Amino acid sequence: MNKVTNFTKRQKDIIDVSIKIIAKNGIQHLTIKNISKSLGISEPAIYRHFESKLDILLAILLDFKIKMQNSIDHIQALGKTSVEQIEVMFFSHFREFVNNPALAAVIFSEEIFQNDKRLARQVKSIMKLSQDFITSLIQEGQQTHMVRDDIPHEQLSLIILGALRLIVTRWRLSDTAFDLEKEGHNLWKSIKKLIYPVNSNIL
Amino acid sequence: MNKVTNFTKRQKDIIDVSIKIIAKNGIQHLTIKNISKSLGISEPAIYRHFESKLDILLAILLDFKIKMQNSIDHIQALGKTSVEQIEVMFFSHFREFVNNPALAAVIFSEEIFQNDKRLARQVKSIMKLSQDFITSLIQEGQQTHMVRDDIPHEQLSLIILGALRLIVTRWRLSDTAFDLEKEGHNLWKSIKKLIYPVNSNIL
Amino acid sequence: MNKVTNFTKRQKDIIDVSIKIIAKNGIQHLTIKNISKSLGISEPAIYRHFESKLDILLAILLDFKIKMQNSIDHIQALGKTSVEQIEVMFFSHFREFVNNPALAAVIFSEEIFQNDKRLARQVKSIMKLSQDFITSLIQEGQQTHMVRDDIPHEQLSLIILGALRLIVTRWRLSDTAFDLEKEGHNLWKSIKKLIYPVNSNIL
Amino acid sequence: MNKVTNFTKRQKDIIDVSIKIIAKNGIQHLTIKNISKSLGISEPAIYRHFESKLDILLAILLDFKIKMQNSIDHIQALGKTSVEQIEVMFFSHFREFVNNPALAAVIFSEEIFQNDKRLARQVKSIMKLSQDFITSLIQEGQQTHMVRDDIPHEQLSLIILGALRLIVTRWRLSDTAFDLEKEGHNLWKSIKKLIYPVNSNIL
DNA sequence: AATGAATGAGATTTCATTCAT
DNA sequence: TATGAATGAAATCTCATTCAT
After folding, report:
1. What CATH number corresponds to the domain at position A118?
2. Does residue C81 sit at the D interface (CB-CB below 8 Å)?
3. B153-173 vs A180-195: helix crossing angle, rounded to 10
4. Are C93 and C75 contacting, i.e. CB atoms less than 8 angstroms apart?
5. In a domain, B173, yes or no
6. DSSP code of B146?
């Protein structure tokens, strides 16, 4: 059912180590030499698997995009309420980042990919994916009176995603010094309070 | 009263074009050659003003840090309530970014500066500056019952700053396609609603 | 009767596409990768048919040399006068180049093959072949008083071959923009006039 | 009076050694490494003087083109008859090639420059220069009855230039084994005979 | 204060070729 | 007969930086 990338095993290896290199030392250290060294093969060998370095970066983004789309499809299929779906998305993001901290470093760093039009386009479409998903869930929540409707859905969505991004960024810049999943759960509890319909808070 | 940088005119020029280069083409295009070309001088001339490229990056951060500190000092001196102070900070940020979009591209891109410990430390201290400022204002707001106190102040601060960051990021990735000041004002109105003490919403 | 090359079908394919690649993009684009891509096979597959790239270049030259030798043998067997034989050689060259323009690009480009002694030797022997053939025909023509003998046969031969080469070169550099066979015929008419015995020399 | 190239001393050095490298080992040995080694400087140093390797090749052609134009201008200013002018051009070419054999290897090797459109265009314009010059001289010679007019001037010009090119090519492929100036003079004597007006044509 | 010339290190990429399958 | 994976060598070019002037 899931969309599947056509990446070969070696291509996946390259994508993985590339993400790790970027996360650890920054995009400027993502060199063919460093990739090949990490994999224990020669530099030209990389070019058997990707035509150019740009293609590696595009593959990182494409891989993430497909994963995210699958995650969204999965969540939508769970038969949960809109607010519960946001919760699932929140928590699954946190879990993924804890398991693969390097991904967090790369995926919220749109700037990394700004130096090429094709990369920038892909980054934008990834951002749009999560944005549209959350926005439509909020809208649905407002229609079912599970989310306060005195604030435009786009802004609620922006606030939620902004908080998600910033907590992940802080976690990463702190060198994963705090428990992201725990803090993330607390953050979600607060967000839930914030977005609940106003009168219900009285109860 | 303000802290003042000791940067010479030429140093300021270099800082400015460096920010512009990063904003336009990414950190990888920030080369001595590109800086000197933008300024119409030779490459060695740059070294009259900065000892190394790292020093230029540090200067960018230091310059921003001092500006931000001055801005905070200024806001605190206005004699406003804590919520009003957050509002002023919000709006002055937006105005600054509209006047200097390149700055927005650089200043929320912590990843750019991750490949060196000195840079990373500076980035963290800048983040801490705004975080501490907002957090203390929220805390004060809670004590004066102008801000709801059923949500920890750190989380409210995180949500506010996260929203601020994300709207600026979107504005930048959209190539400044929407009116950041207008959308920012609307966002702030929504945030104000969210953080107001719960019962007061009934009125 | 003809000498026959022992080249297999695949080897001939390789020779052909190699000539085309050189003609179209220059010797620097003649790479194993480009050859194999043109043939739709893998790079190592080339090495089933030729031991090395040098061997491919040698094969191109050898193939042409044998063709030329066969052509010379054929012309000599026609039982024509010496001037008629030159004419036949002229015209058959033009026809061959029109049918296979790539060949023209390669065969008058001795420089292409200068970077290896074995190649250079082969090139020289090919040049000698046509030179000797024409020279001996001119000499024979002079002995039978069909060609003026007030000019050394080597020089007449050089002038004839030089004209042949240059018109082909111009045709090729013009991207075959003119009708080589027609212009070639006109050129031959003029050359015939030039080399006919002249009475005026008696004066 | 002469057109002058704006090449710096270093640029001229680079052009010179490049021609020598091509002449000696072929275009494929013209590498930045070989150029820099010949000059005793580092590879990056080359890029102070030319933006790219292509620019070096273009400079070689431009340099030759200007020299040739100056040579043509000079010859035309001598106040000689058209046939004498061709003679001067012939001999000065031979002298130049004897003094700088490498130039001969490069300048009649149009194929070397075929892999780039800008190079190919420049090559064509150089060929046109000499072609037009000779053709107009022949035409003038025919009008003044110093050159036979029973053969179209374009063809006489082609025959003359073809002979010039081929003798130079042979001299080069023989590793300058014969005396080009002496053989060239003999060739010219023969050509002069060939192109003189013929009484026999009257018949 | 500025520059022209230079360089060691290293970037991406291509080359001909090999080898296990 | 063919290929996927790999490689050492080398190509072009860029980088931050230095130094004499």
Report:
1. 1.10.357.10
2. no
3. 90
4. no
5. yes
6. S
Number of domains in chain A: 1
Structure tokens at C103: 């060949």
Residues 6+ apart with CB under 8 A from B174: none
CA distance readout (Å), A195 to A86, A142, B160, C79, D23: 12, 10, 14, 104, 79
Q: What is the C-alpha separation between B153 and B197, in angstroms, rounded?
A: 13
Q: Which of residues 31-60 of C touch strand E (CB under 7 A)?
A: 31-34, 43-44, 46-47, 52-54
- Considering only CA atoms, name the residue closest to the C1' of nucleotide F19: B44
Number of Cβ within 10 Å of residue A40's Cβ equals: 7
pLDDT tens profile A145-177: 999 999 999 999 999 999 999 999 999 989 899
Confidence class of residue D25 from pLDDT cuts 50, 70 and 90?
confident
Going by the DSSP 8-state scheme, the letter that residue B114 receives in this structure is T
- Give residues with Cβ within 8 angstroms of D34, minimum separation 6: D21
Whole-number average pLDDT of chain A: 91
DSSP code, position A200: G
Contact B173 A123 (CB under 8 A): yes
**pLDDT score for B150:** 94
Say yes or no: B115 contacts chain A, CB-CB below 8 A.
yes
Q: Distances in Å between the alpha carbon of B75 and those of A91, B82, B86, B190?
A: 37, 10, 9, 22
Does B33 contact strand F, using a CB cutoff of 7 Å? Answer: yes
The whole domain housing D107 covers 61-202
Q: Give the pLDDT score at B3.
A: 66
Whether residue B123 lies inside any domain: the answer is yes
Q: Is residue A117 part of a domain?
A: yes
Q: Which residue is nearest to nucleotide F7 (CA to C1')?
A: A42
Is residue D191, in this structure, part of any structural domain at all? Answer: yes
**Chain B partners within 8 Å of A167 (Cβ):** 158, 162
Residues of A within 8 A of B25 (CB-CB) are: 114-115
Please judge whether B111 and A112 are an interchain contact, meaning their C-beta atoms are less than 8 angstroms apart.
yes
Q: Which of A62, A95, A91, A65 is nearest to A78 (CA)?
A: A91
The DSSP H or E segment spanning D36 is: helix D32-39
Q: Rounded to whole angstroms, how far apart are CA atoms D152 and A153? A: 85
Test B27 with A25 for CB contact under 8 angstroms.
no
**Could A187 and B161 be called an inter-chain contact, meaning their C-beta atoms sit closer than 8 Å?**
no
Check whether residue D43 has its CB closer than 7 Å to nucleic acid strand F: yes
Smallest Cα–C1' distance to nucleotide E2: which residue has it? B45
Among A186, A192, A185, A190, smallest CA distance to A147 is for: A192
Strand segments, DSSP code E, in C32-82 are none
Cα separation, B145 vs B142, whole angstroms: 5
